[in-house]
Amino acid sequence: MDLENPDYWRGLINMSLSRFFILRTLHDAPAHGYVLLEKLTAFTHGCCTPAYGTIYPILKALLEGEYAEVRETIADGRPRRVYALTPKGESAYQVAVNTWKETLPYIERALLEVSA
User: What is the DSSP secondary-structure string of 14-60?
Assistant: First the structure.
């Protein structure tokens, strides 16, 4: 752990926000892994986007917790696993949104005090 290395903090932030942004993206529309990653990258401009190898363990955890469901489809002639939030996943997303809304003012305040 090197607290003076920006990559340490970026990695920590990325791990913390990846699940939230996946829930956010699936809240908008069901998607398969590759499209989900593209949407996450576009939405966050590359910040807080999980690596390709990281997204599937997160999706697996969402499936195991019954926050998401998957259906097999064919897209562009290839089989795809399309992920969608369940009602439990939608509820989890709303809890996450509300929790971040409660937390962000304190993060903003801490950042502003550093700037002052």
Answer: HHHHHHHHHHHHHHH--EEHHHHHHHHHHHHTTTTPPPHHHHHHHHH
